[in-house]
Amino acid sequence: MKKTFLLCFALGLLALFLVLGSGCSERTTWSAPDVGLESVMTSHPPRIDGRAFDTEWFLAPELIVAAGDEFGNAGGNFYVRIKSVYTPYPDTVYFLLQWRDDVDDVFPDRLIYEGQLWHARNCSFDMGLVAPESWGKRPREIEREDRLCFAFEITPAGDASGAFASRGCKIACHGGMRPTSGLLDMWYWLDARTNQVGYCDDMYADSAGLSGDAGESIWRINWRDPTFVPKFIVRRDNGGLSPAKIVFDAGAFGRQFNQCDTINPYSGKVWGDSLNPDGFDYVPGYLSKPPTGSRADVFAKAEWREGLWTIEINRAMRTGHESEDVAFYPDRTYNFAIAIMNGSREIHSGSAPLVLRFNTHFMF
Fold first, then answer.
1. Is the pLDDT of residue 98 over 90?
2. pTM of the entire predicted model
């Protein structure tokens, strides 16, 4: 009797395994689950410093989101921890995101000096330092920058493949970075270009494509197109920012590069000196400065430490720019998605569609 029972039990397990196995071998056609992030109300706003040491973050509920290839394009798989709090006075929403990343990719499009050792002798006549053949880029470094994108639905968005509410990043991040209908609020954080000055680049996507909100952009290129000769070089203290990562484009901090610039301000050595810290001379490929207008609505600061990215973001619940920005009200829910770009511009890992809800009771 005992043997018969064990045999039947084993056969039952085998049948269950075969049923489950056959189901897992096919791609599901179900709608995406309603995965919700709860933003809780607090009277103590966290500091936006990229460190997440504030008590509010320890008490807020956490959502763990898988970002991968199903909603991306071969960017790999990441697990992203997300938390959110908001304050009613002033009405501001805050987000915390963390994910593992082995490398801090923060040197996109470096402008590399490939000329001869340069002492700037007779520089008024010798233009070798600013000659196009003296400068270049390394293909492996093109767009070498970690990025994060938040996409919030302002009006119902979609394309031929479906709705943003059920397809998430597949709608916003493919086919020219645009939905064919509706409007999305896009917050772009870039390690080199926006993180250095404490912002996300505030943009929007509609049927016309991806556009910046009204106002001046955070960044612009630092080479004399179509050459790779630098436009500007770091002077003085670079506004307190790392001269290896960015040229701070603000008055006396960023000055026009010329053939009499004997010393690379980052290395403190003459151009072409083999003892430079990286083994070669370079100038950051981008200029950054604080944005203006509606483009300056989203603040962000991130820190990479021991293989972990920590990003804190905040924005007013309502900016007054509703034609470009999602307006948050505590009694409503909001469709959103995130994308992680690991040292790339186009290759990314996207999340399934997510839903933001606000808890209208004080939690702490």
1. yes
2. 0.86
